[in-house]
Predict the structure.
Amino acid sequence: MKHAWLSFVSVWLTRVLVVLAIAFFLVPIVIVGVMSFSSSDVMMFPPKSFGFRQYSSAFSSGDWWLAARTSLVVGAATAVVSCVIAILGVLAIARTRVKAANLVYGAALLAIVAPVAAVAVALYQVLAKVGLLGSVPGLVIAHCILGVPVSLLVLRVGLSGIPQTLELAAMSLGASRVQAWIHITIRLLTSSFGAAFILTFLMSFDEAVFATFLGGAHVNTLPRAIFNSIRFGLDPVITAIATILMVATGVLAVGGSLLRRGR
Amino acid sequence: MRIPRSKDLSLASGKSGFLMLLPLLGFVVVLVIIPLINVINTALAGSPATNFAKFFESPAQRKALLLTFSASFGVSIVAVSLGAMIAWWLATSRRPFVRAIIWASVLAPFWMGVVIKNYALVVVFAKNGPINYVLGWFGIPPSSMLYTIGAVVVGMIYSMMPYAVLPLYAGFRRLNFNQLRAAESLGATRLYAWVTVVLPAVAATLFGSLVIVFVISLGFYITPVLLGGLQVPFMATLISQDLFQYYNLTNAAVSSTILIVSTVFVLFGAILIIGWKRLERAIL
């Protein structure tokens, strides 16, 4: 071909761009980690001196503990509710003759794509009407909008890897269909369930838009508290909290992905 | 007794299937469809013409609308192009170490959580942050890069990267690489082979990712607020102000309706062009 130089340039340009992009994706994480060990009370790069000052002030503050507890409760409840709705739905799609199941599945997935701010307004109206605005159950309901699609995706892939013949074998040996589902299929799905639970929990644990729009005066989750703190100035304590959260969610997410791949 | 042929008896009955699907169906209808219709209703309540005229009268709101759509468009183009390059490298590299680093860099922002991720960028862009520190070596005076449209766009690209990389990676993995080798062995340059062999095969996936990234970007709230501040108002910023500062539910509903209708319109167009199956693949 002519234009050999054009090919050469584009191949190398691509490589340079990718390397720069990757560096750029990783840099903020490293910077926050480094800054969290600064012993200064103003944000400054590079830190003048190092210490555990940010960590000790983060741990000694009752507000952050309270916010963390709220986030844990909301996250766990969201994960449980989402997984229950999702497993029933996924079994219905793959193991029954119900019609139009894929349409419902598609509609549920679209919730991920819907503009978050608009959905928040929509939920604001609905939750206000039923008196759940600014309550933990209200926020759990809202988070399920994002949690159910996550669980659906994970569990559907998991279920597709389990041969239906196992259930049929159990049934031919006298198990009822429900017994076969519970004792064979769902038991084999354990690692997928673990992954779905972790990923849904993380989704809720990290979510800030619904928490801000729907949390009202009393439900203050960790992301919301951090968001509000950053809006009103750069408190260096956040670097410590951010680092702890990055490590914790990173470990959980890797665990979730490994479970999903299934031993 | 005659066994009906059309039924697959290895599957449970449609009736029990429907009962099991009920929670999911209820969830979709009660939490997504009805609330969204409700918002559109609120926007149309009273005199719809006045509600929307009021929205478009305000220059600030027109600016936010334009900004949201143009930024989302730019973000989707850049994120998908960059995502395609990264995904290509990921799909073709044989060195496990390189692949591990690329995966980590793509997935780390995904796992970090929206607020933490944007906070990290605020720290990086801040006036006494690392970028200005490095620029200082070259004698460039520190300037605040925060609260600019550029900062918001970079932040949005950072967040949307996994949505661009993951579907494209899956798309590249489905390719038959022998075709590429054949083209190159017959004399095509790497670029020519890529454009004539790979591009047509992944065009639908590229388009799907473009659409998904664009649509998700429309609703962004945290990134514009933290990296753009009041200087760079997005639709979501306006919605939150209408709701919590001006207590103007109608106006918030009008803004939301514009977002919802555009999303539905774009997604419907995309389904017509590439079909639902291929669009679904682009949703992670």
Residues 60 and 218 of chain A are 21 Å apart (CA to CA). Residues 54-164+192-261 of chain A form a domain with the MetI-like fold fold (CATH 1.10.3720.10). The two ends of chain A are 48 Å apart (CA to CA).
